[in-house]
Design goal:
Layout lengths: L1 E6 L16 E6 L2 E5 L6 H8 L9 E3 L5 H4 L2 H7 L4 E5 L6 E5 L2 E4 L4 H7 L3 E4 L3 E4 L2 E4 L14 E5 L2 E4 L7 E6 L2 E6 L6 H12 L2 E7 L5 E3 L2 E3 L4 H13 L4 E5 L4 H10 L2 E3 L5 E3 L1
Parallel strand pairs: 3-4, 4-5, 5-8, 14-15, 15-18, 18-19
Antiparallel strand pairs: 1-2, 1-20, 2-3, 6-7, 6-11, 9-10, 10-13, 11-12, 13-14, 16-17
Helix pairs in contact: 6-7
Length: 277
């Protein structure tokens, strides 16, 4: 199986690809063409063309969570693809925000988006087999959430409420070597996601996506980044559970990525990469 990185924050130097703060992956399984997230804009469509992928032929699209850098390109995808089944958690429709010190940023899609495109979307609450051996799955809490999640909110009855993360899911792909887990931003925490996948589907062979270890910047100050202890815990989890292939980028952060590369088999992913599983 090949997983194509249609958009990521970075790209190889000198390449013709576009990059942006966002994530979009493409793969084929069980004779289905499947898209996972759509980045922030229509740039992933341009990159798909360079990679020889016709997104008009995609059969299934799964959105990992309701933040703009994963769902922002969905309207552009739906404009060129008239047939794909689109899946996301029901609470991805919420008005989502991130509070960075004294600044509040809207991070979800406006209600007008769902008014226009809602009929194309299947909103799910339970684990769903979207194709044979491919699951869009809920996440269980086994340990603490990452620090960044404390900055996330949604609007309820005109008030801001701490985000319960119920708009996030992951994809699990069954393969002969074990399960492949795809994450969007891992706001629940990567170990929570991997523990859930192991419980539900069995041994994990590979994990690909954003791990969100870098926190964020506010007024030039880096805040809510994960500790070296947490990064070591993730690396130990990889080794203890025999996870053979690990590819990450997007929201993981350069410094956490370098630490993971030193401690485990982790590799950096970039726009245009074709990951062979």
């Amino acid at each position: 199986m090949k997983i194509y990185t249609l958009i990521e924050n970075t790209k190889p130097k000198g390449s013709a690809y576009l990059c942006e703060h966002g994530l979009s992956l493409y793969f084929e399984r069980a004779k289905k063409r499947i898209l996972f997230d759509t980045g922030s804009s229509d740039s992933f469509i341009y990159n798909a063309t360079l990679l020889g992928i016709d997104l008009a032929k995609v059969d299934i699209c799964v959105i990992s969570h309701g933040h703009y850098d994963h769902i922002g390109g969905l309207s552009h995808f739906l404009d060129i693809n008239k047939k794909a089944a689109v899946y996301m958690k029901r609470n991805a429709k919420r008005n989502l925000y991130t509070k960075k010190l004294f600044r509040l940023e809207q991070t979800g899609m406006p209600p007008s988006f769902f008014e226009k495109y809602g009929k194309r979307i299947t909103f799910i609450d339970e684990d769903t087999e979207v194709a044979s051996g491919v699951y869009a799955a809920n996440i269980r809490k086994h340990r603490h959430y990452p620090q960044y999640s404390s900055m996330m909110y949604f609007e309820q009855d005109g008030k801001l409420v701490h985000d319960d993360l119920s708009h996030e899911l992951f994809i699990n792909i069954e393969t002969g070597d074990g399960n492949v887990v795809l994450t969007g931003c891992a706001h629940h925490g990567l170990i929570n996601i991997l523990e859930t996948a192991g419980e539900k589907y069995g041994k994990i062979y590979a994990v690909i996506g954003g791990f969100h270890l870098n926190g964020t910047k506010s007024f030039g100050i880096r805040i809510k980044k994960e500790s070296h202890h947490e990064i070591r815990a993730i690396a130990k989890y990889f080794e203890k559970n025999g996870i053979r292939k690990i590819y990450t980028g997007h929201c993981t952060g350069e410094k956490p990525l370098e630490k993971l590369k030193m401690l485990s088999r982790t590799k950096k992913m970039q726009t245009g990469d074709i990951i062979k599983i």
